[in-house]
Write a structure and sequence with these properties.
Elements: H1 3-18, E1 22-26, E2 32-38, E3 44-49, E4 52-59, E5 64-72, E6 76-77, H2 81-88, E7 100-111, E8 114-124, E9 127-143, E10 148-160, E11 177-188
Antiparallel strand pairs: 1-4, 1-11, 2-3, 2-11, 3-6, 4-5, 5-7, 7-8, 8-9, 9-10, 10-11
Length: 189
Amino acid sequence: MNKTLIAALALAAGGVAQAQSTHYNIDPSHTFVYFEAKHFGTSTLRGRFDKKEGSVVIDRKAKTGKAEIAIDMTSVSTGVGPLDGHLKKEDFFNVAENPTAKFIGDKFSFEGDKVTAVAGSLTMLGQTMPVTLNATNFNCYDHPKLKREVCGGDFETTIQRSKWGMSYGVEHGLPDDIRLLIQVEAAKQ
């Protein structure tokens, strides 16, 4: 066999072997971004963002991936209307000028086939900072109704809100550290 043909076949076979990436779209009804902050060292204030969209690409063989999640900051919900209104103003999320936050994760860590962490960047209030989301749970399964694979898990991190320019109240005892908890499920496309 001719050396050029052998090289072409090897290259083609290598390309097929490398094409193991799987694309998933997040399910907004099973994906939530929660936040927690201590309220003057007493109780824990909790809230979430109700609108989000995005996708995840995972290559389990190559141990790589990419996640892109957009969060509608106008959908903040703590269960307390006046607080939600304040969080939307310039003191906090300034949704008039920054209606969307975005997480892009491009460094996936694995243990076997399970994702253990996703490192990337969070853009909020016009500032982009590095963030690593650590998985406390991750699993994939064949969804009985969708008839396709669904992957998801629980991820968490703690950020300092002042790094994004959100320092309102820190000097009066409101916490700078905010715990983020992300519950995500995504269906294979």
